[in-house]
Amino acid sequence: MVIAADGTGQYTSLKEAVQRVAAGTRIRVRPGIYREGIVIDKSLEIIGDGAREETVIEASGSDCIRMEAERAVVKGLTLCCRAGEAGLEFFGVDAKKGHLVIEECDITSDSLACVAVHGANTVATVRNCRIHDGKRSGVWVYWRGRGTFEGCDIFANARAGVGAGKGGTPEIRNCRINRNGSAAVWVQPGGEVTVEGCDLSNNKRGAWKISGGMLSFLYGRKIVSRNNRE
């Protein structure tokens, strides 16, 4: 299945294609600007078919991607939430169910966090993405959501690079978390964050802030944990 804004594919609208195709479909998205938000409610793969910076999902009245399926893959896209311009608040990516894999995407939001992961049955795996210029945190994991972030650049967000609370448990590996408006990692009550091999330098409020919960660092086989009583 090919989506092309210029009419050379089966659909010009990614939103319409997602609504119509069967579960298990791989959708290839050719370069263009697609001004629409996508609700993924069936298992799919959505793959950019061209340069990431030229294949843009831009949403002003919704999240760019809202995950409501058991499993999905999103790869090679720019996801730009512009809801703030309309006085609204949405995430770049809102993972609220199932297992969402995001690879090699550029993600931003001008109203809320760039990536949100929440819900006891929700897992996000985010690899080699740029997560930046969020109006709040770059990543926010809460309400028992789980996430693994590997090889990502998380930068220039208004608050923390990565925040977790209310049972959220992200693992952050080999990421660069820099130039954020608060700490690189902010652990709020109920959150548990694990960090391994990351660059947490050059953030306005330091490498980490612990308001509750637990922050653990992995050094090979050694685990060093901190909480807000330390």
Description:
With 230 residues, this protein is mainly β. It has one domain (2-227): Pectate Lyase C-like. 3% of the residues lie in helices and 46% in strands. The chain has one helix and 26 strands. Strands 1-2-5-8-11-14-17-20-23-25-26 form an eleven-stranded mixed beta sheet, with helices on one face. It has an eight-stranded parallel beta sheet with strand order 4-7-10-13-16-19-22-24. Strands 3-6-9-12-15-18-21 form a seven-stranded parallel beta sheet, with no helix packed on it. Helix 1 (14-20) links the parallel strand 1 and strand 2 (26-29).
Summarize the structure.
The chain has 230 residues and is mainly β.
Characteristic terms for this protein:
Pectate Lyase C-like, eleven-stranded mixed sheet, 230 residues, 26 strands, 1 helix, globular, mainly beta
